[in-house]
Amino acid sequence: MEKEIISELHDKGFVIVKNVLTNQQCDELIALYDAGDTYRKTISMERYRFGLGEYKYFKYPLPNLITQLRETVYAQIAPVANQWMQELSIDKQFPAQHKDMLQLCRDNNQIHPTVLILKYGVNGFNTLHQDLYGEHAFPLQVAVLLSQPDEDFTGGEFVLTEQRPRMQSRVSVVPLRRGDGVVFAVHHRPVRGTKGIYRVNLRHGVSTVRTGRRHTLGLIFHDAE
If you write DSSP's letter for every residue of 16-46 in order, what string do you get? Predict the structure, then answer.
């Protein structure tokens, strides 16, 4: 990633990265949605009151495209994660390479992959939430939009909220096009105020889909228990 993208990620807690995937790669991942032997679990959002839609967790081994993307992006954003830990005075540092992050998860009984693909139809949405999954949670993740807004669907905006101490929540609507990714904070991030650095909490979700169908790839860099 370019230096400007990394800087924006650190300063805002999220950043859009254009053209993470090609149209062909998006088509390939959408086509995988109905490949039952590719996934370890399917979740109905409505059943668990997470929203209205469905998502599936991939099982190991992951498709090569996802493995390569996970490894490449992780190596570029791990320095930001470690800087955040220092600024928040959290006694934790993350490995420079993703394979070592996965080994850390395995050593602590977090063995199930958390990469997922999500599907929303008309009226589908995702409530505000955080993807933690275990004690060893990498503080950044990525969502890549696989469908084209205004062609494949309308509505369905990616939304982030940020809660600062003693302040009302701040909402950001992130404008993604097909193949774009947004890198964002899983749980919290540091913010510099007049009295030093303090912690703000973030949640993310998806607004209501008005028409069509929306697919998203979710890249989470730690595994689940």
Answer: EETTSS-HHHHHHHHHGGG-GGGEEEEEETT
3-state secondary structure of 118: strand
Contact 180, 19 (CB under 8 A): yes
Give the SS3 label for residue 78: helix
As beta bridge partners, residue 125 has 52
Amino acid at 127: T
Closest Cα partner for 27 from 166, 203, 148, 175?
148
- Per the prediction, the chain carries an average pLDDT of 95
Domain boundaries, the chain: 3-220
180 neighbors 18 (Cβ within 8 angstroms): yes
**What are the tens digits of pLDDT across the range 7-32?**
899 889 999 999 999 999 999 999 99
Cα–Cα distance measured from residue 155 to residue 3, given in angstroms and rounded to the nearest whole number = 32
Neighbours of 57 (CB within 10 A): 19
pTM: 0.95
**What backbone torsions phi and psi does residue 181 show, to the nearest 5 degrees?**
-120, 150
Region 3-220: CATH code: 2.60.120.620
Estimate to the nearest angstrom the gap between the alpha carbon of 203 and the chain centroid: 11
How far apart are alpha carbons 123 and 110 in whole angstroms? 34
Q: Among 138, 197, 149, which residue's Cα sits nearest to residue 177?
A: 149
**Residue 51, C-beta contacts closer than 8 angstroms, at least 6 positions apart:** 45, 124, 125, 126, 127, 205, 206
The pLDDT tens digits of the residues spanning 77-113 come to 999 999 999 999 999 999 999 999 999 999 999 999 9
